[in-house]
Every structure is written in structure tokens, then in C-alpha cells.
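Budget justification, computational time. The allocation requested in the original proposal was used primarily to generate C-alpha cells for proteins on the priority list. As evidence of use, we reproduce two of the resulting records. The first is shown immediately below.
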Amino acid sequence: MILVLDNYDSFTYNLSHYLEDLGAEFRVFRNDEISLDEADSYSAFLLSPGPGLPVEAGVMCDLINRFSGKKKILGVCLGMQALCEHRGMKLVNMPHVLHGQQTDIEIINQSQLFTGLESRISVGRYHSWAIERSEIRKEFSCTAWDESGYAMAVE
């Protein structure tokens, strides 16, 4: 069973619909409505987008600290930023905020996440914080970049 951690963002519902389409079993909890002990009963976590910085997202950072390396965790937007910060990568405030804008990203290392997609795709952007290329640690693989050199996917 997957725990979807809702960081108070409406995109969480889109992610939930994707999980439904895949036939996955999951439950959605807001980031301040579940304890770490309750979270322990789930086999995997999906960390949603949300406003602000990872440290401001309820139990999310504590969840990562406790379960990283023990359970599967996928982070989207704020969730990915939190996972990167947990591994010592630094977030930067983007000089040009991209809220509700479409841009292209380049998929540079094929992964299961991008199976069946072209190497260049258009995506919707809703963030003002990012991980720069120079911050990606050698034990990780960046699987997608934007044209400004910000990481769009990290494994």
C-alpha cells in the first residue's frame, strides 16, 4: 500500500488519479495528519508538490529521514526537492519563477519513470526553487534537465 503525502497542493489529486489508473492501492494523507508510526505501515511513499520549502511541509522531512533507504520514495516537485536536500544537495531560488508555464525538458538518462517518452517533452512548471546541475552528487543520476540547467528528475 502506497502512502501519498499531500503537501497541500491540488496536483496531489492528479497523482492519485494516475495511481488509480495503474491499479495501485494507496491512501492520501495531508502532511500534518499522519504520524511516522502510522506511516511505517505503508510499503512506499509518494511525496506531492506543495508550496514553500521542504522544511515547511509538516512531517515530510522527518518521514524521509526515517524511511530513506528502507522504503521506496518518489518525490514530485517539492517532494523531489526534499529528497535531494536530504542527500546534501542545495536548493536555489530560481531567478525566473515558473508558475503555470510550459517549458521543454530534456530526458538525458532513460529510466522507468520516462518509459515510452521522447527525449524532449513539454511539461507544466509550478515552482520557484530548484536543484542546479552542479549540486547533483556523483552517486545520483539526473534523468532530466531544463534548458537553464536545473534538475527536473533525479534518481
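The second record produced under the same allocation is shown here.
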Amino acid sequence: MSYLFSRCVLATIILCVASCSNHHFLDKLEQIKAVGDYDPNKAIVMLDSLEISIRNESDYVRHKYDLLRIRLNDKAYKTPTSDIMIKQLVDYFESEESAMEKQEVNYYAGSTYRDLQDTPRALEYFFKSLEFADGSEVFDSIMLRNTYSNIHFLQYRVQDYNNAVITALKELEISKKTKSNLIVSYMHIGASWLALDSATQAEAALDSAFSLIVKSNNISSHQNLLIHLLNNYSELKCLSKAKECLSLIDIDPKDDLSSFTSLALAQYYKSLGINDSTIVYCKRILDGSTDVDDMFDAAKILYRIYGNTGDISNACKYADIYMQLSDSIDFGKRQELAATVNNEYQYHLDQKKERDLYEEKKKFRNALIIVSFITLLSASIAYIFYVRRRNKHLQVVVALSSELQRISDDDKQLREDIKAKEKELDNSTSELDSIKSELQHVNIELLEFDKTLKEKEQQLADKIEQNKAVMSMMHQSELEDNAEDVIYNIRQSSIGRKKMTSADWKKLYQAVDQLYPTFKDRLLKELGSFTDQQMQVCYLMRIGLSKPQIQNITNLSRVTVWRWVKKYEWVLDSDDKL
């Protein structure tokens, strides 16, 4: 027993150590992977240092190691020579549950076949990578963008320009979401539209790319893209934009330029009509380049220039080179490859559709089995509930029978109680009638008191009006004693015989201020800021004029005068209220 226990403990310790070792190596691989994003050559050296120790690790760690090596070689632009390793990795990771690992291994399988010039198979794996990314909530968005970029490259290379445009637009959509590589996405769109002779769309996309390059404030890191823009703008005959691109490109025409740079300059000088410079750059390509596509374009340009200028000898020479390069490129083969790519893609879609239908059929069959089982189980449960409910119902019926008997006895007792209450109710009704009679007498007295109260209120209102009239007369009498000429002017103005001048108003203000020294201060306190007309109304009210008189003197509308008089009733109060 003790021996068995010791063996179990030892096995547990070994498993723990192995698990820790796996995590240790996986962490190292992640660190190397991060370094490889900006310095793949350094990361490859770091990865080589683990080559011996990795042999003792688990299958999963070793396969992650091999996949990372393929990733770093791809980023370092090292062309693979065989697909043996990537095939093994695809077979291994296809059985894993991680969608991100499936996305990654299929992406690098596509990259491997792309470098091996196997376009149909490269597209197949790139499309598989897209499937795993689209079908999962967790995926590598940068890798998804690069997948669309590679698919566009392959479609463009086999002259499938319509699908290349669609793929480039999807690449741009992902680039906008990740806020990365927008310039390249716009360049892909522009190149595809240009190949389809859609000049307007091509120019718009290229303009977006050029604008982003200028705004980046890092022109030196976009020299290659500017050379492509120069070539594309020259083909579109956008000479001003081509000149602007050329001004940003840091090159010396005397240097040994790449074949595509020479081709871009040749296209530029051709669009300007400078044939000598165009011929120089085209001959550079034919003499020193190994890129068949660039040599083909250069020979075509030279053939057209010499043909247009009437130099038959050189035109025939470059026409012969042009035809030889055309045979090397084999456009017919490219068209056939484009058809193969489309067929491969359609086959891929058909396979996906078949798998979806099979999965749907399988799900339907499983769902039918589950539904049948649930139906049978539900029927059994329903029958059990029915039996239990019937038994409970019988018990309830028996209980109700006894309850009905009890209720019947209670009913008899209640009937007797009701008769007694009815007698009490008759007695209460007679008492209620007498109380109603007393309430009627009280209501009559209240009506009389209400009538008397209204008469008293009317008398009080009359006295208030009399007091206001007396106060008004007193104000006018006091003012007449102190400013008889002012009162005369006001009376003449109130009957329309004279119009109040500013001097008359000043006299009125002075007379009222002398008679009521605190009135002006109170006016400022109550109103704060006021107009001349408001001030005139207040002073006329203070000397006791009526509303019609104030209206005639001030020429204000009746509504305004009535509203202001109501608002400034405090003017008639005592001057001591400050």
C-alpha cells in the first residue's frame, strides 16, 4: 500500500514539473514571437537557441516551436523550399480546439504555398484561415487583415481584378477597425481599379493613400509606396500629383535603381512626353533587371516610342524582345490560372456548403432525437401529474362536501342574525331622518350668513374706493398748493388741449419730489431700471390721476395703462415704506 502511494506521489510530481516546463517554454516562445514582430532576424537567433532543449518538451510545445519558426521566416522574407513541415502542422492543429491556432496555421500554410508559386492551394488555405477567423469571437485581427492582403495579391497576379477589388475593400474595412496599414489597403484598391480602367475610383483611392503618407510626417519610411504612387499617377496622366510624389521620393537618378523604380520613372517621363529620359530608364531595366514583368513593360514602352517616332529598326528590335517576354510571361497560362483560382474558390465554397448542410442535417437529427425524448418524458411526467392531480381533486371534493355542510349550518345562523340587524336598521333610519331635518335648518342659516357676508364685503369695497378717491383728491390738493402751474398743464393735457413737454415733466417731478421726498428713492428701490413712460405713469398715479387721464397724457394704449396701474399700486401707499 505504501509502495503504491509513493508511486502516485512521484507521478503527480512528474506531471507538475512537466506542466511547469511547458508553461516556461510557451512563455519564451511568446516573448520571441513579440520580438519577431519588429526584428524577425533577431527572433530567429533567439529561437535557434532553444532548438536542443525543445526536443524534450511535449508535442504541443514542439509544434508551437515549428509554427513560430515558419512565422519568423515569413516575416524575414525567407522563401520556403518545401511544404512538409507546414503540412504536419496543419494536420496537428486541425485537431486542436483553439480557433486562433487554426487561423494562424492555415494562414502560414497559405503563405508557404504563395512563396512556392502554388496559387490555388495558397488561396485554399487563406480562405480556411478566413473561415476560422469569421467563425470565432476571438481571432487575430491583424492576421485577418494580412489574409485579405495576400488574397488580393494572388487574385491581382492572376488578373482576377474584379475579385481583387472586392478583397481589397474588405482589407480596408479591417484596416480601419484596427487603425493599421491603411495606406497599403488604399494602394491595393487603387491598383485594382486601375487594372479595370476605372480611373475615377482608382484616383480617389490613390489620393487617400497619398494623403495618409503626407500626414504621417514620416516620408522616409514610405519611399517604396511613393514609387508605386508615382507609377500609378503617371499611368492615370495625373501629372501634378505625379510631380508631387516625385518631389517626396529621395532618389538619385545616377544610382543603381531597382527595376520597378526605373519603370516608375519611365512611366512618369513618358506621361510628360520626355522620350529621351523614358528610353534611358527602360533600357536600364532591360539591361540589368531579372523581373520579367518589369522587362515586359519596359520593352512595350520602347516599342511604342520608337514606333511613334518612325524608328523602324529599334521598333522591330524591341517588338521582338516584347514578344519573347510575352511568351515567358505566358498570359494564356495566367488566364488559365485565374480560372483555376476561381474554380478552386468555388470548390472551396461548395465544400463549405456541403459541410454546413451535413452539420445542419446532423443537428436536425440530433434535435429530432432530443425532441422525441423530451416529448416522451413530458408525456410521462404529464400522466404522473394527472394521476396525482386526480387524487388531490378527490380529496378536495371530500373536503368541500364537509365544508358545504358546515356552511349550510352557518347560513341558518346568519339568516337569524340578518333579521336582528334589519330591526336595528329600521330604528337607525328614523334617527337619520331627524338628523337630516336638523342639517337642512343649519344649511338655511348658513345661506343667510353668506348673504350677509357678501353685503358686508360690498360695503367694505365701496368704502375702500371712497378712501382711494379721497386720497387722490388730497394728493391733487397738496400738489395744487405747491405747484399750481404744473397742475394746470396736466389738466390741459388730460383733456387734449396741450401736450406735455419735457420741461413740464421736469416741473412735475420736482414738485412731487418736494412734496414727497422719499418717493423717488422708493421708486428706484421697487423698479430698479425703468423707462421714461413707466416713470411718468408712476408720478401721475402719485398725484392721484385716474387711468383715463393718464392714458390721455401719456398716449399709451389702454391695456398698457391699466396693466401698469395694477402693477404699480404701491405708488399710492405711504412714502414711509422704504
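A brief technical remark on that second record: The radius of gyration is 52 Å.
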